[in-house]
């Protein structure tokens, strides 16, 4: 659908990108009463082609970095209070991080202590307690686990993004233009002065790039080198499984993390989502990402390479044997 509203010639702040980060920036600027913020998104919004639309959406609040832990905990509280269509944007189902080795158990012990000192609840639990919380586990490969009660899932992150944009618009702070691609960032005397878009020029002295994996391309437009590269991360959705039959909501069981194998599993109604970094590094050049209308699902969903998932699948079956019988429905890199 062509966007009929005329682009403003000037903005206090321009945000490039309408994923979860751009929408969150818009919300938080509105909460600081900043007016005349313009968000430009190259794709159809609210389902643009960035990572946000197909993320697993979970939050494990404790990290070894205090900054990251505080940010994650803020996310837990923020999404719990944010509502989209009257429903909270966060399901606090809890999270289990497994330890397959004594070293991992020591690491989890450190995490529990860090969490406590930063005011985030967590505890080490026995193998039996882990199995009680998540009965699909096999006890044999596990030495223990960490239980984080406030871990959970943003349901869904695109709903949260819409809720934030609605609020920023309600405050009279934000105008959002989708199908509007930033083609160039204009810098004069080392100062940004605006962006050229597919629908015209917008003048501004403050431009925020929230362009996700396209970030290096936006940086290049502004003459800045951003040394980041988009990395593949495999995600597989199973078909319906009997153990989750009758699920009443998107997620009822805790999210499972198996850091010893760089993997995670979460429920999605009566299916499982299995995420894996347990494969050789695969990089895509940001220049090679196709436009939204030229891709089947999303520009950032690359074709699934099953050969990179074999080892991962065998690993996760060790701790969740029930997955051996789960039908493969869909996967992507
Ligand atoms: C399979 C998978 C699972 C994940 N699971 C989780 C998880 O469970 N928990 C978690 O916290 N994170 C998860 N992530 C990571 C998370 O999805 C990302 O960190 C997050 O979505 C990034 O949001 P973003 O707004 O920065 O980027 P994006 O969502 O990619 O948004 C960037 C936007 O910028 C727009 N854009 C780019 N260039 C331009 C331009 N020139 N002009 C205008 N617009 C432009 C794009 O169209 C896009 O909409 C996962 C990621 C993947 C791939």
Can you walk through the features of this model?
- This protein is 25% helix and 25% strand.
- It is an alpha+beta fold and 333 residues long.
- It folds into two domains: 13-54 and 157-221, FAD/NAD(P)-binding domain, CATH 3.50.50; 58-155 and 230-332, D-Amino Acid Oxidase, Chain A, domain 2 (2-Layer Sandwich).
- The strands form five sheets. Strands 8-9-7-17-18-19-16-20 form an eight-stranded mixed β-sheet. A four-stranded parallel β-sheet has the order 11-2-1-15. Strands 3-10-6 form a three-stranded antiparallel β-sheet.
- Helix 1 (20-31) packs parallel to helix 5 (157-170).
- The longest helix is centred in the first third of the chain and has 16 residues, at 66-81.
- It is globular.
- The two termini are 29 Å apart.
- Residues 13-323 form the FAD dependent oxidoreductase domain.
- It comes from marine metagenome.
- The chain crosses the membrane at residues 12-30.
- Keywords: Membrane, Transmembrane, Transmembrane helix.
